[in-house]
Amino acid sequence: MIFVTGGAGFIGSNFVLDWLAQSDEPVLNYDKLTYAGNLNNLKSLQNDVRHVFVRGDICDQAGVLALLQQHKPRAIVHFAAESHVDRSILGPGEFIQTNINGTFSLLEAARTYWGALPDGEKAAFRFLHVSTDEVYGTLSPEDPPFSETTPYAPNSPYSASKAASDHLVRSYHHTYGLPTLTTNCSNNYGPYHFPEKLIPLVISNALGGKPLPIYGDGQQVRDWLYVGDHCAAIRRVLAQGRLGETYNVGGWNEMANLDVVHTLCDMLDTLRPKAAGSYRDQITYVKDRPGHDRRYAIDARKLERELGWKPAETFQSGIAKTVQWYLENQAWVLDVQSGAYKTWLETNYQNREA
Ligand code: NAD
Ligand code: TYD
C-alpha cells in the first residue's frame, strides 16, 4: 500500500480518488482534518476497503511510525501542509509547525521505518514530497521560467516554510540515503478546491452575488495546471523518478489574475446568466497582498524529457470541467462554508478597502 499525508485536502483527495480509479493498491490516508481537510471529498470511497483513513498529525512522530510499522507501505506521498499564502501572512506559526516541523517528524519516522526494512523493500521504498513553485520567488516579465536549478528565493511565510521542507527532504537523501523525490508544481485548479483560493472563491462569490476581489492591479501572473494533470505527474515521478531528484510540474499556461477572473465571469454569463448585466460587474479592486509575487512560470521540460509527462488538459478544457463541477456541486461548497471559514473571510477582507 501507499501512505498518503493530507489526502483529505484539495490535491490529496484528487490524488487518492485518481489512484484508486486506476489501481487496486490500497491507500492509507493520514490527515489531521484542519479547516482544509474534508472527508466529503472522499465520500465515494466510503465502503471501499482499499481506502483506510486515519486522523492524525504529521508532527506526531511516534504515531506515524507505529502506523508505518503496522501497515508497511512501499511509499509515502506527502501532501499535508498549510497551503494558503494569505493565511501565512496573518498567522505564520501553523506554517512553521506543520510544513517544517511536521515534515521533519515525518522524515524521521520514515527514516526509522525504512532503515529496518529488508534490503529489497528498502531499495524499492520511496518518499515523495509534494512542493510548490513558490519556493523560487518571483519573476519579471522577461525572465525565463523557473527550472530545477533556479535558486530558491521564497517571499512569503508559506513559500519559506515549503522551501525549508524541501531542503530537509534533500538533506535526508544526501545524508541518510532515504530514497526521496520532490515535485515543485505551479498553481492547481479543479474539483474540491477550497473556496479561499482565487478560482473557487470567484466562482462561489459570483454565484452568491458578492464582490470578486482583485488584489492590486490584477496583473500578477500564475501558471495554472488542472489538478488531474498534477496527480498524473506525481504518479509518474513515483514510478519512474530518479532518486534524490526534483521535478518541476507546470501547465505551460501563464495567465494574469484579471484574465482568469474575466474567463470565469464570461463562462458563468453563458452557463448561468444573471437576470441583468454580467458577472464582470461584480469585480472589485482591493488592497494588494503584502509581498505579492508578480509572476510564476514553470519550465516543465525535465519531466517531459526524462519521464514523458506533459499536461493533458488545456486551460480551456480544464476550466470548463471545473466550472461545471462547481455548478453541479454547490452543496459541497455550502458545506465547507462553515462558521470557521466565514470568520476567515471577514478577517482577510475587512481591511482591504476598495
Ligand atoms: P490543502 O490546504 O487543500 O490541504 C492540505 C491537507 O493537509 C488538508 O487535508 C489538511 O487537513 C492536511 N493537514 C494540514 N496540516 C496537517 C498536519 N499537521 N498533519 C496532517 N495533515 C495535515 O492543500 P492543497 O492545495 O491540497 O496542497 C497539497 C500540497 O500540495 C501542499 O503541500 C502544497 O504546498 C502543495 N502544492 C499546492 C498547490 C496548489 O495550487 N494548491 C500547488 C503546488 C503545490
Ligand atoms: P491563490 O489562489 O491564493 O494562490 P497563490 O497565492 O498560491 O498563487 O491566489 C492566486 C492569485 O490570485 C494570487 O496572485 C493572489 C490573487 N488573489 C486575488 O487577486 N484575490 C483573491 O481574493 C485571492 C484569494 C487571490
Automatic annotation (TrEMBL):
Its cofactor is NAD(+). Residues 3-322 form the NAD(P)-binding domain. Keywords: Lyase, NAD. InterPro entries: dTDP_Gluc_deHydtase, NAD(P)-bd_dom, NAD(P)-bd_dom_sf. It catalyses: dTDP-alpha-D-glucose = dTDP-4-dehydro-6-deoxy-alpha-D-glucose + H2O. GO terms for biological process: nucleotide-sugar metabolic process. One of its GO terms (molecular function) is dTDP-glucose 4,6-dehydratase activity. PANTHER family: DTDP-D-GLUCOSE 4,6-DEHYDRATASE-RELATED. This is dTDP-glucose 4,6-dehydratase.
